[in-house]
């Protein structure tokens, strides 16, 4: 009873609305849930695009939206805002994840990072080569970057559904691989799909990056100030011709990984606060406010900016931005000729064959040359099954397809992405489940 009361004392007071919000909050932090929501959004987009309301549905995303300030007008389609603005937030979170892994995670040392790096390289190079083998010199050649991508949300969702049937080492490997894969996708977008540059706008974006760094050096810790500067960086890159999502990655990588207030200092401040509150001398309301305000700031600043933004933005990215992206981009009319088109087949070949072959082959060579080590709880079939799961290229593949191709080739590529990702998921799950079943028996 005493333990229960002690635990309750550490909780904030509950309000009636918390009975509604708390279950939603718990659901939004279940890893498998985001994959399910993304899948439902994809199915809804496909159904809408192949129904009697398809024209209205597709026209919805072409509606103009924007603003005007004096002579400056910025108006784009809803789909453009989703792909260039909302997805910049998605890429900001990716930048945070990359920074965290490089500073505190699996990518902080060459030894621990070697296997996912080699696996990711194979998972990018071989799919691109297979795609070009089919499309070289043809109208769909520019889509070579499409099968290089891995959708971390679907992979995480699939791993969560499989649960304890997969070894922990495979989860770590695939998540690290996906992070390296994301870095590769960012480079592909920046280098492979930038056609023309407005150097004035680009210099503006770079200038605000410099300001962002100067503010950090000066010790400015106001989130609103950094948000305003980040928006200016986004605008500069958007107007320059480099895809605006790159700005999100850059801001994510610039975000501090260390907390401003150490746990030791926080403990001391909280102890002083408790002594102040329990003291016998009279306290003015101003004194009480200042002491509690300092304790509040110390508690907030004891959490690094990366941790705070990752935790705060993850539900919004997983349950709003990515499903909206799927609704805007996955809606494609399905027809037999499109499924059997050369572009669709090239994408399927890259995701379904190129991904697992590339990941397995490059990993095997790295292990044989003793450049990397296979985790103790993994075997060769785990590696192969994980390679197939990495062939789920959905969100990132759709994103790159939108940069690389125009209709009707774009719709054909989307069909290839959906087919290749679905088959990759199915085969990967079967291999992992059957392999683990055989080991346990």
Report what the structure shows:
By secondary structure, the chain is mainly alpha-helical. Among the domains are: 110-194 and 328-441, Na+/H+ antiporter like fold (Up-down Bundle); 263-299. Helix content is 73%, strand content 3%. The chain has 19 helices and 2 strands. It has helices spanning 2-9, 18-28, 31-49, 54-60, 78-103, 110-135, 152-162, 168-192, 199-218, 223-240, 245-254, 263-278, 285-301, 305-329, 336-339, 342-368, 380-389, 394-404, 409-440; strands spanning 64-69, 72-77. Strands 1-2 form a two-stranded antiparallel sheet. Strand 1 (64-69) and strand 2 (72-77) form a beta hairpin. Helix 3 (31-49) packs across helix 7 and helix 17 (380-389) packs antiparallel against helix 19. The chain is globular. The protein starts with a helix and ends with a helix.
SSE topology string: HHHHEEHHHHHHHHHHHHHHH
Question: Termini, distance in Å?
Answer: 44 Å
Which parts are unreliable, with pLDDT below 50 for 5 consecutive residues or more?
none
What is the fourth-level CATH superfamily of one domain?
Answer: Na+/H+ antiporter like domain
C-alpha geometry: globular
User: For the record, what CATH class of one domain applies?
Assistant: Mainly Alpha
CATH architecture of one domain: Up-down Bundle
Helix fraction, binned, reads over 70%
Structural category is mainly alpha
State the total count of DSSP E strands: 2
Question: Quick one: biggest sheet?
Answer: 2 strands, antiparallel
